[in-house]
Amino acid sequence: MNNARLEQTSIYISIGGALFLAIVGLSIGLAVQSGAVLLDAFFNVITFVMALITFWVSRLVKRPEGRRFQFGYKGFGPLLNLCKSLLITGLASFAFAASAAALLHGGRHLDAGVVVIYAIIAASTCLVVSIIHTVIAKKTGSPIVRVDAKNWMINGIIGLSVAIVFSIVTVIKNTSFAWFVPYADPTIVIILVLLTLPLPVKVIIESLSQILMGAPNEALQQSINNALDVATTKFPCAKRYLRTSEVGEFLYLHLYWLLPKDEKLTSIEAIDTMRHQITDIVKHEFPNATLDILFTQDEQWFSTMNPG
């Protein structure tokens, strides 16, 4: 199964899993008035809606450039991840505020046994889907699937934590700690928000960096330069300067290549051959890279274009 088919399979799994959990979670959450269950349910509503959009975006980013988007549609990937993470962050912040208010007004009374049953179903479903997505993300290198895997993991952690806490609540409700029972639901929501919020915030920062054409992480830049080091041993090069940006799973490389003054340029065909061979070296290591190479022997122009 090719990468595109695997990516679509992961989206179908997200749509089905999110719809199932959203319906079950909203039904039970509204019935027992549990903030923790409703938080989980609304996470799944967001996941379902965004999975539908992801299905469209996953096809869009594969389309070639057009008259309106002359550099292609790759930017829609990080834009989708940004929107998804902003929604999750907003929902988590709202849940935090509502739960803090509930703590100040005596907590919430609910049927803990029903919540435990839902939480076990939700946690099992989310963790299985997250594992499947993680495997697919490693095979395809798709950042869309990778972000989905993180979101499902967040849902799974929420479900598992809710199951554990409310199992404890069912045990202590007939003990001297029964006073804590009404506070269990808002307390677990606040704790979950504090624990899981860094994940979507990290995705927001990464997505913004990609949308704004920021450079990839230092490790990736070093790997690219290592590949270019191989090229400079094969072809004449006085200096080189590389500009890089990462958009989703794609790399854009803009390479300035200063040829030695004594290098005789026999023909355009010779330059083209050199360009093809350097591109092959880079593409062997980074098949999703687009490489533009500017050859020159004008050191002053080279320095002007690359002041750093």
At a glance:
The chain is mostly helical and 308 residues long. It has helices at residues 3-32, 35-60, 76-104, 112-140, 143-172, 181-196, 198-211, 218-234, 268-285, 299-305; strands spanning 239-247, 250-258, 289-296. It contains 10 helices and 3 strands.
Calculate Rg over CA atoms: 26 Å
CATH superfamily descriptor of the largest domain: Cation efflux protein transmembrane domain
- Mean of residue pLDDT values: 84
Q: In this structure, how is the largest beta sheet organized?
A: 3 strands, mixed
Oligomer: single chain
- Tally of individual domains: 2
Compute the number of strand runs.
Answer: 3
* Structural class by helix and strand composition: mainly alpha
What's the CATH architecture name of the largest domain?
Up-down Bundle
What is the end-to-end distance?
45 Å
**CATH topology description of the largest domain:** Alpha-lytic protease prodomain-like
What characteristics describe this protein?
elongated; 308 residues; 2 domains; Alpha-lytic protease prodomain-like; 8% strand; mainly alpha; 3-stranded mixed beta sheet
